[in-house]
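Human: I would love a firmer grasp of how sequence relates to backbone shape in proteins. Could you go through the record with me and say what the backbone is doing? Here is the record:
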Amino acid sequence: MHPRPRQPLVVALGVLAPLLLVLGIWLGGHPDRLPGPVRDALVGDSDARTVDRALDEVHGEYYRPLPRGALVDAALGGIVRSLHDRFSSYFTAREYRDFQESTDAQFSGVGLTAREDPRGLLVDEVFDHSPAQRAGIRSGDVIVAVNGRSLRGKSGNASRDLIKGRPGTRVRLTILSHGRRRTRTVQRATVSVPVVASHLGRLADGRTYADVALAQFSSGAHGELRQAIDKLPEQMRKCLVLRIDQELRYKEIAVLMRLSPETVKVHLLKARRRLREELGPYFQDPLAGEPEEPVS
C-alpha cells in the first residue's frame, strides 16, 4: 500500500507561512488590535505600555501636530517635577548639551554671556581677551541681529545658536548700544570661561580681606582653585595669610615665622606675582595700593 502524496499540504504551508509572518509583524507593532486576553498573555499591559499608548494617542489624535519626541520630553520632565526635589532635573538632549558646554568651561563662540530680551540678546558679561571684547562689545549692549537676521521674537537658545560656530569662522553682529546701532564682524574662537576669580573686600570694622573664589562651577574648577593657592611655597603662603587675614606688619610676621622683615617682604612680593601669573586677568591684588611699609 502506497502512502498518500503530501504535495498539496506542502504547497499550502508555503503560501500561508509568509502571510502569517507578515500578520505577526503587524500585530507586534499594533498590540492594541489583539483581543484583550491574547494581548495580556503575549505583551502584558504594563505601565510602560500604558504610557506608550497614551503618547501614541496624543501624537496621533491631537488637533495640531506634536512631535513625539517633544511629548516624551514633556512626560519625563513632568515625572521629575512631581518629585518636588530642587536637586533633581530632567534635561532634553539639547539642554544636556548646553549643560555639558557650561560645565566644560570652554566653548566655540565670541566670548560673552547673554540672556533673552524682546529685542534680541542682552549681553550680561564679556570675557577678557575674547573676540567680543576686541570688537568693543560691552555688558548692557543688545545684539539685535546676526548676519543680517533679526533676533526679535527668537528664543535665547535659537539666538545663541546663530552666534556660535566653528573657530576661525566669522559672524556679523548688529549691536544696539545707548540707542545707537552698529555692526561688527567678529571671528569666532575657542573661548575658555574663567572659573576662578579673586577680589579684595572690607569688613564693617574697616579690616580688609582677600577672597579667591569660584566665578562659576565647572569641571576642573576645584583643581584650578586649589592650584591657585597650593602652588605657593609654604612660607609664601603663610606670609600672605598672616598679612591679609591677620593684618600683621612685616616685623610681626617676621617674629612669628622666624624670618627677617626683608625676607617677609620678598615672600609677599613673590606670592602676589605667582598668583597673578596663575589666575591671569582675574586676579585682583589684595595688597595693591597699600602704603610701603619700612622693614628696618
